[in-house]
Write a structure and sequence with these properties.
434 Repressor (Amino-terminal Domain)
């Protein structure tokens, strides 16, 4: 059985930002993190830590676990 296609977590975040009309700067402010963290998530150079996942989830009205799971699924699928 072939696993489902996965995408980098940054793609999901970009879609969520676009739906809301948010910039990376706005998301960083809502997450209470430096813009460099958000840019790193968007370009795939920043790991999804539990703290970032919780803050991202709180900012987007989702669970932090969802973001960790998306991140891990893509990492596992891209090996």
């Amino acid at each position: 059985m072939k696993p489902a296609e996965t995408f980098p977590v940054g793609e999901y975040i970009r879609e969520e930002m676009a739906e809301r009309g948010w910039s990376a700067q706005r998301l960083a402010k809502m997450m209470r993190v430096d813009i460099a963290y958000v840019r790193g998530l968007l370009d795939g150079t920043q790991c999804m830590t539990p703290m970032l996942a919780e803050r991202l989830g709180a900012s987007l009205g989702t669970s932090g676990a969802m973001w960790v799971n998306l991140y891990l699924a893509h990492k596992k699928g891209s090996r």
